[in-house]
Amino acid sequence: MPETLVPVSDFSPAKARLSELMTAVFHGHQPQLVSRHHGKEQMLLVRPDDLVAMLADRVLRVEATYDAGEVTLAIPEMGLLGFGETFDEAADDLLEELRAYAVRFFEQPALFLASSRAGHAAAILRFALTPPELQRDLLLEFKTTADLPTSG
Fold first, then answer.
1. Over its length of 152 residues, how does the chain's per-residue pLDDT go in tens digits?
2. I need a surface site. Which of 1, 24, 41, 58 has the fewest CB within 10 A?
3. In the CATH scheme, what is the code of domain 63-138?
4. Long-range own/partner contacts, residues 146-152 (CB < 8 A, 24 or more apart)
């Protein structure tokens, strides 16, 4: 049995056949590890849409609060809030906060991954790789005892 269950290419040969690897990853949906320094350093090549599908269970746990003409949407574990007079306005605000958080997270991933925020990585990566026109749908995936409205 091979050491890994995912195909591995050494770095130098992978550079020489990058087009072939890209075809296998993209058209064949085949994840590929690229390794150097005798396996001490590795990276994973995978289609972004395949990765989003693999991370489908990493939902954003959005909570809604309705109070006197204002809606607040929160992702408590990330400390993110969105505000508005309607659900849609609060969702727009929360989406902007999530996008800004994703930018900060991936500008300094080592810092975030070494902190208590490391657990956010999968959900933030899924959000960041989701096309912008579909990101709003990610806010509606988490269901509580009271379903969130879609407009209002």
1. 567 799 999 999 999 999 999 999 999 999 999 999 998 999 999 999 999 999 999 999 999 999 999 999 999 999 999 999 999 999 999 999 999 999 999 999 999 999 999 999 999 999 999 999 999 999 999 765 344 555 55
2. 1
3. 3.30.160.620
4. 148/62, 148/64, 148/87, 149/87, 150/87, 151/86, 151/87, 151/88, 152/71, 152/86, 152/87, 152/88
Domain ranges of the chain: 8-46, 63-138
CATH level 3 topology of 8-46: YefM-like fold (3.40.1620)
